[in-house]
Amino acid sequence: MTNEEAGLAKACERLGASPAQAITMAAQLLKRAGQLATERGITREEALAHLLKVVVSGRQGEAPMNLVPPNRDADRG
C-alpha cells in the first residue's frame, strides 16, 4: 500500500468505515479518480478532491446537486 492509499484509508476510517472497508474504499477512490481525470481532462488531484466531497456529502446524508439518479422507468420498458 502506498502512502497515498494509506492516508486515504485513514480518512475513510475517520468517516466511519472499518479498516478493511477503508482499504477497499481508498483503492476504489484512487482508481475512479484516475478514470475521471482521463474522462474530464482534469488532474487526478482535482478528480480525487471531487470524489472526496461526494463521499463526505453522502456520509452526511446529502446528495450532490449534480448527481442525477438513473431513470428507473426506462429500465421497465
Strand-helix topology:
Layout: H1 3-14, H2 19-40, H3 44-59, H4 72-76
Describe this structure in words.
- The protein has 77 residues and is mainly alpha-helical.
- The chain has one domain.
- Helix content is 71%, strand content 0%.
- The chain is built from 4 helices and no strands.
- α1 (3-14) crosses α2 and α2 (19-40) crosses α3 (44-59).
- The longest helix has 22 residues, at 19-40.
- The protein is globular.
The CA-CA distance between the termini, in Å, is 45 Å
Q: Please give the largest β-sheet.
A: none
Class based on secondary structure composition and strand pairing: mainly alpha
Give the number of domains.
1
- Helix fraction by DSSP (H/I, runs of at least 4): over 70%
Tell me the strand percentage band: under 5%
Give the topology string: H per helix, E per strand. Answer: HHHH
Overall pLDDT score: 87
Structural Rg: 14 Å
Q: Spans of 5+ residues with little confidence (pLDDT < 50)? A: none
Number of strands: 0
